[in-house]
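S1.2 Input.
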Amino acid sequence: MPLATTTEIRTARTEDVPVIADILARAFQDDPVFTWSIQDPQERRAGLPALFAAFAEAYLPHDHTYLTDDGLGAALWAPPGVDPLEGEPGATFAERCAQALSPEAAARCFAVGELFQGHHPTTPNVYLQLIGVLPERQGAGHGSRLLRHALAECDDAATPAYLEASTPANRRLYTRHGFETIGDLTLPEDGPTVWPMWREPDVRERYRR
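S1.3 Output.
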């Protein structure tokens, strides 16, 4: 598969929510965290688009949600000091989750969120909530381009970045982009392990560009 060389990245708009939801639903259908959270494959396939639409709508107002111009990949980031799922947006998100998923699956999703929130660093950072590329186009560099777009902004602002890697492959990808593993979190009931990762800004990049 040819590498992505001309893909442009832009800030997503409200009308992009269906595209973002479709990209992420397809990208995360077999992700370990979501297979643990939504254990029935049919429920996962049916419920993930609505779940990710709710995520996108909560994150869009903060202008850190990015989409490739060809609709192959998307990323949802939160700026420093902002929790897009706090307060009224969080209540709306929880309601949307309850509508999209069975009570058991929704409870598991909330448990994942609480676990991640409980271990979130207190140092201000830009947080990557979700990043995904359509499965048939993975491995062509689209995810790396999405990462570089946001991380360039982090470098310009001298702001650290934080995320949780849910697979060893993703962990290796993030390591190549300057993230370091700072621990591990294991979900209950023989759930998967995820790896919190931290990246200090590379302020030298400001002078290279």
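S1.4 Remarks. The radius of gyration is 16 Å.
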